[in-house]
Amino acid sequence: MPDTMKIDGNDTLSDQESALQFKEGAGNELTALEKDDKNPPMNLASFKRLPPGSRPKRLRLVLAANPQPANTTLILSSTIYVNGNEQDVKVYREQ
Amino acid sequence: MKLIWANMKQEITNFSLLLLLIVTVNGCKSPDWGYSKPYNFASQKVRKHNYVDGSFRRDYDQAKAANDEASARRERNQILSELMYIIDADHGDYERSTQAHATAFEVLSDFTVLGLTGAGAVTGGAETKSILSAIASGVMGAQLSVNKRVFRDKTIEALQAQMRAAQTQRKAEIISRMKQTTDDYTLELGLSDIVQYYYDGTMTRALQNMVADAKEKEKQAEISVSTNLLMLDKASKVEITTVEGLTDQLGALVKNPDQAAARAEAQRILKALDMTVDPKETNDQLYQKLQDQINTATTNHTLLPKLSGAFAKP
User: Under a CB-based contact definition with an 8 Å cutoff, are residues A81 and A15 in contact?
Assistant: First the structure.
């Protein structure tokens, strides 16, 4: 069963990235990231639980207009709230 | 074959008579369920105004022309109240009529189905049974169709409750507006509200309101679910490294070739976290409990130091 949590869309991209990294560090893998149209400017992040003692490589949250970080793989693209405004973002994972 | 058709003709004649009887009893008049009216609510004789032309508003227009606000307001309110009364009186009949028609149709259909299937049973021949069963299926299909298409599988009672609720709300709004001056709430605005009051009492509006209510409830439920989700807060680099380190330490236990030692270590950590340890728990269950504790720290950062202390070797 996916675990869905809210992220404050007023936060910066860096702060939201740290929140996602923190959650993934506790043995969860991000499966979806989207804006919450019902409660703007909130974003919704869904995770799947990994087996105990497992965690994915770190993710990187980048504005879609910016270049892909080195040694990463694109895992999803989405439109979310960043600093209270809708922004197109891409989520990469370190290899 | 001739015998079969003769039997069928007789049966169809019998059913036609039965249908005619039922229609005559149930379909041609709306029964008053219960008791008589004290007077004819819909009679024009009990009304002050006649609404077949514009004469009903003559006194109102004259009062407005004379700047007689008190009289204009009284006339406006009398007209609006009377129109609501007329709608209420007719709506009572309409409610009984919809109830009666739904009931009559169901009874009619039931009797027809019972008659046809019963006839099929006594007529004997396989061909006759087949023909009568086909007719009976058609009648049941028609009943289902009417229920679905006309009443949309909603009970009449639910629709009537929806109509009453909408009209009650509208009536309260109209009565409240009657306290306003005739400049702010003109007779024309009042008549416009009366039109809406009338349509609030129709099946179409009731269905629309039911759908709108359902959509609103769904929206509120979605907002409620979303609102109740836990918030994922930003974390410092140290916190991220710490939580990753704890998961990695747990991973080392899971992969440890000496699972007896790993089990003992997992139990020690759980005890350090003041958690009860059941000797019957499997290693997987112990590891899952530890991972759950680490996961809880993502919504309660203050747990991190305690977890770090427990995972640290004594």
Answer: no
